[in-house]
Structures are given as structure tokens and as C-alpha cells.
Amino acid sequence: MSGGLDLSAVYHTNHQIIEAAYEALPQDVWDYICGGAETETTLARNRQALDCLALRPRVLVDVGEVDTSTTFLGTRLRIPVMLAPMGNLTRITPSGALAADDAAARFGTINFVSTTTPPDLEVTGANSPHHKCFQIYMRGDTVWLKDLLKRVKAAGYQSVALTVDSAYYGNRERLNAYQIRHRDVAERYWQARVTWDHVKLIQDELAGIPFMLKGIQTAEDAALAVEHKVDVVYISNHGGRQIDHGLGAIETLPEIVAAVGGKARVVVDGGITRGTDVVKAMALGADAVAIGRLQAWGMAAHGADGIVRVLELLEREIVIAMGLLGVTKLDQLDASYIAKTIPVMPAHEMSAFPHVRNGRLK
Fold it and tell me: For 87-139, how does the pLDDT look when each residue is reduced to its tens digit (9 = 90+)?
């Protein structure tokens, strides 16, 4: 692992990384990462929806060589997993967005850089030459937005995403001082006024830079995104941290893929923590997935090195899942490898890791 620690002899599963993250973080930051809105129903459904999908293996196929790579917006990804945008990363590690940026560059994937994460976007932009996507939270009027976009273009970001599921800050009730302090911020006034007019303004200002909408949750909005010539429809319910009682993200994937009809790329996040989750999403039509909490756990455990190890472990799980399904390339996956089923365990943010020593860490 050039440029960082070799954690392969230390962490053999992501269970161990989660435990290390829990030990490293204060309780308020742990709750910020792991919690959801109100009853946390959407958060749990993200996981439950994945658990309601079973895999249908095919056998007697030569799977001696499995290729997990794909291409997204002209960039080769080692695995179809990107690092989702996350705010307030300096609460997890002092280097903030630079940790995720370093990990993405070293492993071979795309990271999303949030408007709300230090350091300045120019610093992160100059940190490495690989493809990174700048994620916009609206924090001002159109003059503010145009100025931000000029900075993003000048800093060399290769794509831009507008988050559209955050008109109001989700009512997150794992109450602690950090959550209460950040729940009502005056600057979120602008986020509640984002419309399709802002989409058009951003597209005009970007002049050909690929543009994503992050936070699409219905086929209706996906169809509108295609009408507005959006390049990427990013399915997300903010990890269950915004609207409560929403559908699990992967539940909406098939209808959104159908609505897009191949006219835009499709990304999904929400509860994805295992290689089998990635395979399920790809089989149902996603072009790539993104990870948030799993990224944060890796970062909390060992900064950029921890994220790289998380991705390495995911890669191993994807290889095993593909090989046992009887496929050697991602484009061989389709819905015939998926079946609806009944989940066998209660769902929560880390229920994919039943061997965490102390059970669910809270």
C-alpha cells in the first residue's frame, strides 16, 4: 500500500474496523455518523431492503479470473464503489476531506467532496490529480452559487453533484450536544429554496462538466432529471438521516433505472456495507454505488489507511460474491441473479456485521 500503512495484517474484516472506530470516537460523533432521523425507520429500511434480496448462483462456470472494475464518467474504478460526500469530516479526522481524497487516489476510485467539509475546496482539489466530484449544498443566493462554481471549475474538479434531499435538516433524535448544535442553522435557508431553475443555472455555468443530482428517491423525479439532461441520477435518502419513513434506497432502484431508460448514469447509496450489497445494486441496474458510514468507520479507525483497508475488504467480498454467482465481469450481472425473500434478522445501521464483539455499538 504505497503512501500509507499496510493494515492487511491487522484488519481481516470490517467488523474489526467498526470496533476500532467506536473506540476512537467520542459518543457524540459516533451518534452523528451512525444515527438517522426520528424513528430511524428509513435508516433501517435501507438495510432491510438489501436483506430482502437473495442471490441466485449459477455453477459450472470458469470463474478463475474475476474482474471487479468498471468505468464511470470516463474514469476507471477498481471496484464500482465511490466515497459518498460527508460533512464535518474534521470531527472524524483532523485532515478532513484530504483523508478521503488520499484514500480514493491510492485505491483507484472517485470521492465526493462536500461543500461543508474543510479544508477549502481549492486545497482538496490540488491534493491529488484523480477524479473527484464536488458536492454542493446551497448556502447562498445565485451570486454565491456562481462564484462557487467558478472556484470549483478553477480547482479542476471533474464532476459536480447538487444535493436535493435537504430542504430541511433531518430531525435526528440520537440527541447529544453535537446534534443539537447543528440542527438549526440559518444558512440552510437557501437549501429550502433549491428548484429546477438552479439545476439549469448550474448546467449553464459548468459548460460541459458532468452534473449529478444527489437525493433522487422516485421515478417521477428521475424522469424529470432526464428531461433536464442531468448526466447522473444519484439515488439517496441521505442514509436515512433526512426524511423518516422513506423507502429503502435499493427498493427505488429498479423503478428509477426504468424511468432513466439509459439516458443517464445511475448511482445508489444507503445501507451498502457488504460486497453482496454492491453486487445486488449492480444486478438491478446501478452503474456504481457509494458508501458513507462504512467510509466514516474506516476513516475513524485509521484515516486514509482505514478507508483503503475498507475498500480492499469490500473488493475481496465482491470477488467472492461474483465468483460464487458464476460471473467474471460486472456487466454479466442482471436481475436474473436476484430474488425477493424474507430477511432473517432485525435491520439497523450495522446489522450486516453480526460478529461485532459487543453487539450493536451505540
Answer: 889 999 999 899 999 999 999 999 999 999 999 999 999 999 999 999 999 99
Q: Which residues of 221-248 are buried (b: 16+ CB within 10 A; e: fewer)?
A: bbbbbbeeebbbbbbbbbbbbbbbebbb
Question: What are the sequence ranges of the domains in the chain?
Answer: 14-340
**Is this structure's pTM higher than 0.85?**
yes
d(CA 23, CA 36): 21
Catalytic residue numbers read 238
Is the CATH code 3.40.50.300 the one for domain 14-340? Answer: no
DSSP state letters, 312-362:
HHHHHHHHHHHHHHT-SBGGG--GGGEEE---SS---TTTT-TT-TTSS--
DSSP 188: G
Contact between 275 and 310 under an 8 Å Cβ cutoff? The reply is no
User: What is the chain's percent helix, strand, coil content, to nearest 5?
Assistant: 45, 15, 40
